[in-house]
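Hi support team,

I submitted a single chain yesterday and got back a structure, but I'm not sure I'm reading the C-alpha cell output correctly. Could someone confirm the output below corresponds to the sequence I sent? I've pasted both exactly as they appear in my results page.

Thanks,
R.
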Amino acid sequence: MRVTRESLLRIAKETAQERAYNDPDIVAAYLTGSLLNIDPMLGGTADIDIVFVHKNQPKQIREFVKLTPDFHLDISRRTKDEFKSPRELRSDPWLGYEMYDPILLYEREKFFDFVQASLRAGFDFEQPPLMLQRCRKLLSHGRQIWSDLTEVDSVGPKEIRKYLKSIFHALNAVAELSGPPIQERRLLLEFPARAEAAQKPDITTSAFGLIGINNVDAEKIKNWIPDWKSAFKLASEKEGVDLRIHTTRLNYYEKAINTMLAGDIPMAALWPLFHTWTLSAEVLDGDHLKFWENAANELGLLGAGFEERVEGLDHFIDEIEIILDEIAKENGLETSVGI
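Hi R., thanks for writing in. Yes, this is the structure output for that exact sequence:
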C-alpha cells in the first residue's frame, strides 16, 4: 500500500471526526508533530500525532493505534482548562509551540481560533523575550533533574533515564532558539542544524559526547540492535513500563535507527536506540538487563563514568546558560544574573 502525507492527513481527519462523533466530551482535535512537515517520514515510517481536547479530565492520557507495521496513531488528550490562559501558553516551551501552528481537525465550539489568536497576538511569539522564557524553562527543568543526579547512591536504568531526560531538555533549550522543540526520535539528527542556527556549532560535539558517542561507532550501535529489539518486545508486555515502549512503535524506532546509521549523521541513531533501551531496562532483569548494562558501560554511563558524565552535564548546562545570557544582553533583556 502506497502511503503519502496526504493519505495520513486524511486518516487523521477521519479519526478525529469519528472519535468526536462518539464522544461528546471532545471539544476539539488538532494535528501536531512530524505530519506538519512536507516530509514526515523517517525510515519509511511515521506516526500521526492527534491531540484531543476534552471538557473533563479523560481517563486515558495517551493511546497508540496500529494502522500498518510502519504507521500508527499517537493520540494524546488534554483538558480544555489547560488552554484557559493563552498568555501563559506563549511562554510554554511545549504546549505553546503545539498550539502555535497545528492543523485543526475538528472543533465542536469556537475553541481553537480563540486560543490561537491569543497565542499569536502581537506577533511576538518568536521574538527574544518570549523565546528566551521558553528556553530558560527548558534549561531550568534540565538543571533540576541534574541536581537530583548529584545525590544518587547507585546507578541503574532509572538514573540513566533521568540523565537522558536532563540532556533532552538542555538540547531543546538550544533548539527553541530557532524553532519548535525536537522530538525524541530526531533529537541528535536535527540538533546540529539548530546549534548552527544559534551560531554555536561546537556545542554539538559536547552534546554528542554526553551520551558517550566518542566511545562507540556506527558498527557497534548496529550490533546492539538485536539485544535492544528483544528488550523492547519483552518490556512492552510488562506492567509499569513507559508508554512509549509499545509494540506498535517498534518499526517506528527500528527503521529510523537503521536509516540514520546509513545516513550523513550515523551516530544520531544512538539516541532513539539507547533511550528506548533504557526505558525498557527499567522493567527488565536477568540477561536482558545485563545486555543493557554492557552497553551503558561501553558508553561510560555506569560506575565512575556516570559521575564524570554528570559533571560534564553541569558544564554543558552552564554553557547553554551563557548562550541565553548573550542573547539577552544583545536585546537589552535581563540575564540570569541581571543586566
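A quick pointer for reading it: The first helix runs from residue 5 to 22. Let us know if anything else looks off.

Best,
Support desk
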